[in-house]
Amino acid sequence: MNSFRDWLRQQICASEERWLPFSEWMEASLYHPQWGYYMRPKKKIGKCGDYYTSSSVGTVFGAVLAEGLFGLLESLSAEEWVILELGGGDGRLACQILNAFQRYPSVYRKLTYFLLEKSPFHRQLQFQHLISHKERIVYLDSLEQLQGVTGVILSNEFFDALPVHILERHDGKWEEVGVTWNENTLCFEEERRPCRNQRLLELLEELAIAAEEGGRVELSLAAVEWINQLASVLEKGYLLTVDYGYLADGAASAAMPKGTLRGYRMHQIMTNPYLYPGEQDLTADVNFSLLIEMGKKACLEPLLFESQRKFLLRLGILEELVEGADDPFSAEARKNRAIRQLLLDETGMGERFCVLLQGKNVFVPRVFRGLSRQVSFNI
């Protein structure tokens, strides 16, 4: 077998229907041990990569987030402070958070920061970025290595990278999008089949998801599985999710009739997910209604949902950006303006990204009281 394309073609041709649900295509494209996008030894974040993240545009995001984490952990009154970060990328966010905690030596010494990362390449980058915090870091290969956690489970752009099923509405029925191999054109092609996955149909009904004729929606069964696993690991504490996404209501469906799936390659949006398998990032906006509803079933109470912009403003991001403000031409001032534009712009990451706080056996801590809830949690 000479390439990833050959492997994918073989998987399709060996399947009973000679067709793979899109979720399986996305899973392989991102996480195949040898050829998957996230598993390849290639830089993905920043100017020389394929996309930016909130933690890659400066250190302020992690510093402000650390203030919120401090408040959450303090409210638990535990002898040991625990943070579990899902994914972690190149380790920059963890480093920013730990640098902020280091300002409080007595707290820093009782903090354990777990990193769950399946990519060997990303694990190497994390080693490099976090060498100064090695005594506080524990690397995990599997969530099964933890049980009975009292602390905070943190994710930043984690759920958007989980495989999704794509469903399309035709003649009043749901069809599932999948991938076939065309022997004549020697290309991967998209093909719809009647949706026979009962769990998907149940979720569509539970979340009251509707679509016009030809409209598309994405649902992640992987996200449901993760929520259930995280809830079982967490004995007492919080699940803090930062990601781009939406609530599953009629307005969302109308605004995104063709769904949200897209690729990123060299900072360009890719509209064809079947080109460059393993060489482009594939992502879909997070359905926060799914996380909320599945979380409630798993004893995770929704405590807060709002835009990243409001969240960061309430936690004092403007104070973090004050340095260098006296000289508008200084390098620090220019960097601050860039960070403002990326993180706080009402038309950019600030509003597209949302923050969801869920809790188990806890109350809303003081630092988050009074924050606006922009969602009815009885949906």
TrEMBL record:
UniProt keyword list: Methyltransferase, Transferase
InterPro entries: NDUFAF7, NDUFAF7_sf, SAM-dependent_MTases_sf
Pfam families: Methyltransf_28
Gene Ontology BP term (one): methylation
SUPFAM superfamilies: S-adenosyl-L-methionine-dependent methyltransferases
Listed GO MF terms: protein-arginine omega-N symmetric methyltransferase activity
Protein name: SAM-dependent methyltransferase
Species the sequence originates in: Bacillus thermozeamaize
